[in-house]
User: Fold this.
Amino acid sequence: MNLKENMSSLEYENFENQYKTLTLGIVDIIPKEDFKNKLIKSIVNKKPLKVKLGLDPTAPDIHLGHTVVLNKLRQFQNFGHTIQIVIGDFTARIGDPTGKSEARIQLSETEVVKNAKTYFNQFQKVLDMDNVQVHYNSNWFSKLNFEESINLSSKITVARLLERNDFENRYSNNLPISLHEFFYPLMQGYDSVVLESDIEIGGTDQHFNLLMGRHLQEAYQKEKQVTFTTPLLEGLDGKDKMSKSKNNYVSLEDSPKNMFGKIMSIPDELIVKYFKLLTPISFEKLSQIEKGLQNNKIHPKDSKMELAKNIVSIYYTNEVAEIAYKEFINVFQKNSLPDDIPEYKWIKDDSINIVELVYELQLLPSKSQIRNMIKNNGIKVNSKKVEDSSQVIEIENNMIIQIGKRKFIKIIL
Assistant:
């Protein structure tokens, strides 16, 4: 039945607005027609959709890459839908095998609880956490008896599980796969059965796990959810997925100045994608920026300035973003120094090799990186470039050491 026929013009306008907004930046909607029907039914019956995001708190902090899916949840929330965040305090003790060439280390209950707490503190920068349903899947998995677990495992074949790339690769390379790892996608899918979720969102790397929710809901005679997959965000290098291990990330805990400066360092080709996935930009504005960059009517640097200011304002305030914006102009366009340079009390020798000095100040993690930075003209002392890694520096009061474009330190005697 096509429910559009029963919609008023106001309801249809609401549907068009929601559909256009919620599908922007999404890689796959499976199946798209089901989403349209669910959305229409939600509007006509004035019953919000239940939108699920499953998370294993495997690390204590999140970065902008994680906010791609959170921003999409915020859009659903703004339209009045119900957000279901599932904290995988039980599944985290198994470990998601997605993309892994070996079994992931299982977390302790203490680690999971600690990480989950820090997640909430950061989520509130994106979501209205007072209007989010938070569920811990240990609430149902800890009560599942062995007979029920066997019944759950009977809903899927080993052949189907081996279709997953990570399992298939490990199996073909004679690498071990523990039986408990097979249960991870089953358990993530079972979360959707318990919560009767209408929509589940995750990154493209979660494709298999998300579809498991649909499969199990059908097996348990529930209405099947629709899956939304969001793109994986490239990091500051423009190549790899944003990741702490790649050191190409922007943390939600970064200072406004560092956040602004990092965003200014992204490759030009990521500007539109960052706007689309990380900001609440309108369709019209996004199209204007995209066309302006293509026909060279907008300079990439100007777009990055707007992007950086926009993102900083999301996680701080408009006033703080304006300060970061002005400081960036002062430091990088007018070659001025920032106002809040951290100070270091120097109590050692009066003279020291530049490499040893920078290493002592902990501005770079290794001496080889320091030498490379000098080679690339990336280190300055009192605004003068250091050209030789063997250079000896005479320590002076209020001497300013600069590393790259964003790190400054003032030496105090």
About this structure: The chain has 17 helices and 13 strands. Residues 96-104 have pLDDT under 50 and may be disordered. The longest strand covers residues 50-55. The CA atoms of residues 72 and 378 lie 38 Å apart.
